[in-house]
Amino acid sequence: MHIEQASESELKTRLEELYASYDQLAERKLALDLTRGKPGVEQVSLSDSLDGVLAGDYRAADGTDVRNYGGLDGLAEARALFGALIGTTPEETLVGGNSSLTLMYQVVDFAMNEGLRGEDTAWALNDSIKFLCPVPGYDRHFSICEYMHIEMIPVPLLESGPDMDEVEKLVKADPSIKGIWCVPRFSNPTGTVYSDDTVERIARLPQIAGDHFIVMWDNAYAVHTLYDDAPALAPISEYCRKYDTMDGVFQFGSTSKITFAGAGVSFIGSSERNLSTLKAHLAFQTIGPDKVNQLRHVRFLKDSAGVTEHMEKHAALIRPRFEAVLDTLDRELGGTGMGEWTAPRGGYFVSFDTRPGLAQEVVDLAGNIGVKLTPAGATFPYGKDEADRNIRLAPTFPSAADVQASVDAFVVCVKLASVKQRLAELEG
Ligand code: PMP
After folding, report:
1. Domain range spanning residue 157?
2. What residue range is the signal peptide (predicted)?
3. One domain for residues 190 and 317
4. What are the CA-CA distances from residue 112 to residues 107, 151, 212, 217, 333 (Å)?
5. Contact 300, 53 (CB under 8 A)
6. Which residues in the chain show pLDDT less than 50?
7. Same domain, 314 and 419
8. ipTM of the complex in this document
9. Does any ligand 1 atom lie closer than 6 A to the CB of residue 396?
């Protein structure tokens, strides 16, 4: 029954039952954790043959001995393989170390302090520096901004992607807005895939906003589909070529959730001009990336078809965990008005919205019975979810049984908080 149609006495009875269920859960002394957006043990094990795949052959295709120094761009065959995943040519692709977050940080840092178009273009020369942050979004993007004193402006993430009317209005009006964060396919946490129209409008943004503006296109889940019918993402590079905006768009990706989360390979796609500017800065930090790992990845994954085949194995492992979450939410909360949630076709998360004002309470209720949830607010700049609604659920890491136990407890907490709140509303 919908919570707003229940009478006061029905709700009171319900609340007593829910307290009883909650107390029973407390007695079980659970120790569960739905916070971590990381691959499970079986997932990382899918790539164990990275270890040994080189079998003593350390020569890249062009004869380079990958054990030695050099090659700031990354190996040619790695640039071809990973460029193909994000739609950039090998010349427009740089392959780095184990973390795309590092590359994102470096791009923002260079733009801030050195200037992407010469030192007089360094953002730091301005008093006010702002970024647009589609919400809910990825907390580590927000942390980079906070750390660098970049003011964050939240913009709504719609089903089609960021609210582009709002984004275009804001960048036209305010030149202190220097960039936008985007997770265009299976975004963290909502699983949104940006529509073709949104991708095209984002590719045009640097034209509208001007030279100082960059798009941070974090395609962390580019190939992370759960189902064959998962929506494709329009290739932003093609639109960038159409509008001549490749200089204003930085694309990122990594194999963190393809092979080893802590020992994968990251990559960046942008104009050749941008990559040569970046390399000039990078050269002060490193003589070159870990090419041994890059070669291992190329030999292991082979090509785009090899990546797809490998990702199907991941999907087979994590699909049941997502389905446990979604089936339970549908069965227990569907039609009750106690929450809304996404049903992603790929990525790593389910995004749950409570009734307004209850996310923190649900997270606390769950925490008190041993079910750790991502802190309320984490998906918003400065940790502030004004509506106090959003909770990110990450079902990949725990075992299937633990995911089920966690979500069973989660729905009890949601119901308890919702019924209590509704009763308080009725009691005025
Ligand atoms: N971007 C997004 C949107 C993510 O969700 C994550 C991992 N949680 C990352 C980047 C981190 O990527 P990497 O491991 O390549 O640094």
Report:
1. 66-302
2. none
3. no
4. 8, 13, 10, 17, 46
5. yes
6. none
7. yes
8. 0.99
9. no
Our CA angle for 403, 361, 142, nearest 5°, is 80
Closest CA to 219 of 57, 388, 104: 104
CATH number of the domain enclosing 139: 3.40.640.10
Condensed to tens digits (0 to 9), the pLDDT of residues 187-210 reads 999 999 999 999 999 999 999 999
For 255-306, give the DSSP string: STTTS-SSS--EEEE--HHHHHHHHHHHTTT-S---HHHHHHHHHHH-SHHH
pLDDT tens per residue across span 298-321: 999 999 999 999 999 999 999 999
In this structure, is residue 265 part of a structural domain?
Answer: yes
Is the CB of 25 within 6 Å of ligand 1? no
Q: Match 């569907």 to its residue by tokens.
A: 334
Looking at the fold, whether 125 and 266 belong to one and the same domain comes out as yes
How do 93-95 and 266-269 pair as beta strands?
A: antiparallel
- Do 80 and 28 share a structural domain? no
Q: 58 burial class (0-12, 13-18, 19+ CB within 10 angstroms)?
A: middle
With a 6 Å cutoff on the Cβ, whether 217 touches ligand 1 is no
For ligand 1, atom 2, which residue shows the shortest CA distance?
220
Residue 226 belongs to some domain of the structure: yes
CA 214-75-54 angle, 5° bins: 135
